[in-house]
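From the pipeline queue, job 12 of 40. The input is one protein chain; the requested action is below.

Action: predict structure.
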Amino acid sequence: MNEPLVREVARGIHRVTSPLGARSMAQWVVRGPERIVLVDAGVASTPDDALVPALAELGLTPGDLTDIVLTHADVDHYGGSARLRELAPSAQIRAHGADRPLIESFAAIADGRYGWYRAHGLDYDAATWAWLRDAAGPDTALDGDLVPGEVIDVGDGLTLEVLHLPGHSAGHVGLWEPRSRTAIVADAAMGAGFIARDGRLLAPTPYTDADAYTNTIDAIRSLGAEHLETSHFPSLDAAAAVMHLDATARFVAAVAALTHDAPHLSLAELLPAADATLGPFPEAAVELARSLGAHRDIR
């Protein structure tokens, strides 16, 4: 099901939804009288294709943005940064210090994130590598680090607390808005697989640190959010949020069981059975190996 381009999910918090291949992705515009915050930049084409039109629907231009928060180092979350630097030169673009080096350099993320699989006899195909390079956009220096616990005050009682939510990546962050009890968590808790817009199970959900990911699931649960906002799933109310977090925890337990039951198999050998058991995943199945490796503490 296609969502509208812009939708207010809580007072002052607007979700921007656009296609990402067969699935959807989201960014958020948090609007107050003092600051206007954009959460995530999408891929390189997202600013022109989705964010500029979305801002126009809200009566804004990119030049009105004061802050751009990048939740983590994946090209669909930071790839639009270079274009946003051109469109919103006064906005401060920041990310957590642990992910910032990967965001600022495609060579670094290609080696440390996307090239991780090569040491285990696995890899993306050439078309996926080409897409990643294009989606990442030009290398862009950020303006500083996001510090967990800091509060971005956008005015009129609307505040955003920076949460450190590691597991999917070491420096993954989210934002908590206490007035509406809205948690923007991006990819910090990813359910049991990414879903295509037509409802098909599409791709596995990779995490790099099993303990951190489990702790993050618990931390999000403890918020008791009335609105849970993730990057590739629809907006979730309180009941749906609990179900999503439960599904995320079950997926982690299932991946852990697979690795425990086959300690003699390499990740490349284990991957087909894991894909058949947890999927099958028609897109980016190799990313399941990252989650399998997390339970062997391979980072």
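Job complete. The chain is about 35% helix and 25% strand.
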